[in-house]
Design a protein that fits this description.
By secondary structure, the chain is an alpha/beta fold. The chain has 2 domains: about 220 residues, Rossmann fold (3-Layer(aba) Sandwich), CATH 3.40.50.450; about 130 residues, Rossmann fold (3-Layer(aba) Sandwich). The protein is built from 13 helices and 11 strands. β9, α11 and β10 form a beta-alpha-beta unit.
Length: about 375
């Protein structure tokens, strides 16, 4: 059985403070954990999101950051990946000055990676700013795992949460008190653990956080094993359905059949999403159902907007998704005539009859053709 981690992009972020905060044995233990976790993730067919940067070291010779440790561990253990695992193995985020900042001892390693299909390179324009690079990293990543760190970890945690992606803090005693991963865990322990991630099993988020929080006797390998178990228990990413939901309207039956027979099987069984429909029948998490709709819509990894029946609420939710630059797929039953502003946007036109496998194949083909479509209005900074 394929792991739920297979093909997912893992972003491991954080750093070590000075020796006065994190002694050498604790720093080394955190690094052994990351090495083992990367190996275990490779075995599951995961991929990675990583920066390319300089490598500053503490006075004990241990690097402050983990990036080149992760690159090296990947290079040494590529043979552990399942043969069907997708490429690239890593998305490398860099800016225009990074090549000259690569440490001499890692130049050959980077050359070996960047010369193959194992790496896809993305740029943070010409910004030599961590925040800009982290914004790009957060767009690529599916899960964020943090160890130590400071403000950068908090910035990334907010970015991942805003996109509805899980944040997994591993609180080795290498954080400056009140900062980084330690602060994220304090926030979670104050009753906010469900905001970090949700799981499909019977355990609460706080239960899982307790399991993966190291103590002085914890073996790094055992903590890595538990993190893998947590990742495989996480709720799938959400795909939000914008669609006609009134059973009294004449188009309802065909829309319901289309989502049940075509959309749901493809989205859930093939792409690993969980299809979300808010129709008032399920428990809501906000005080108002419209607030619940837009909250879930905001934090969904994919939006499928079906305009059959031309319902005003569907156009409103579609506009919100496009304005948020969410990955959005528009579908409509053959014969529907949406307004001009929508007809110019490539949509999947479906028919309520025909062979089921052929209908799914057409939907799948459309999804593949538009899944990397740029936002309807691209970022246009004053100074790039």
């Amino acid at each position: 059985m394929t792991s739920a981690i297979f093909g997912r992009r893992i972003h491991i972020a954080g750093s070590l403070p000075e020796e006065t905060v994190a002694a050498t044995p604790e720093a080394e233990r955190a690094r052994r954990f990351i090495q083992q976790l990367v190996k275990d993730l490779l075995k599951k067919g995961a991929t990675f999101v990583l920066p390319v940067d300089a490598e500053k070291k503490r006075t004990d010779g241990i690097p402050f950051c983990f990036e080149w440790l992760i690159w090296t561990t990947i290079a040494q253990n590529l043979h552990l990946r399942p043969h069907r695992a997708p490429t690239p193995v890593a998305v490398a985020v860099k800016h225009h000055k990074n090549d000259e900042q690569i440490p001499a001892e890692h130049i050959e390693l980077w050359g070996d990676f960047s010369g193959t299909d194992n790496v896809r390179i993305d740029h943070a324009a010409h910004w030599n700013m961590n925040s800009k690079r982290m914004e790009v990293q957060a767009r690529h990543g599916d899960f964020l795992i943090t160890v130590g760190g400071g403000e950068g970890v908090l910035f990334l945690a907010n970015a991942y949460h805003d996109a509805g992606k899980p944040v997994i803090p591993i609180d080795f005693p290498v954080s400056t008190p009140g900062s980084g991963t330690h602060r994220v865990c304090e926030f979670a322990n104050a009753g906010n653990a469900p905001k970090l991630f949700r799981t499909s099993d019977a355990n609460t988020a706080l239960t899982w956080l307790t399991r993966i929080t190291p103590n002085s006797r914890s073996e790094p390998g055992k903590i890595a094993e538990r993190v893998i178990e947590l990742l495989e228990s996480l709720d799938p990413p959400a795909a939000f359905a914008v669609r006609l939901l009134n059973p009294d309207l004449p188009d309802y039956a065909s829309v319901e059949e289309f989502f049940a027979v075509v959309v749901k099987p493809v989205i859930e069984h093939e792409y690993g999403y969980r299809l979300i429909v808010v129709d008032g029948k399920q428990a809501v998490e906000q005080s108002r159902i419209d607030q619940d709709i837009f909250s879930k819509l905001r934090r969904s990894g994919l939006v499928i907007a079906d305009l059959t029946g031309e319902r005003p609420n569907c156009f409103l939710e579609l506009g919100y998704a496009l304005g948020r630059s969410a990955r959005t797929i528009i579908t409509v039953r053959d014969g529907t005539k949406p307004p001009f502003d929508v007809t110019t946007y490539a949509a999947h036109v479906w028919k309520p009859t025909g062979d089921v496998e052929e209908r799914r194949a057409r939907f799948r083909e459309h999804l593949e053709s538009v899944k990397a479509r740029p936002p309807i209005v691209a970022d246009d900074p004053l100074i790039a």
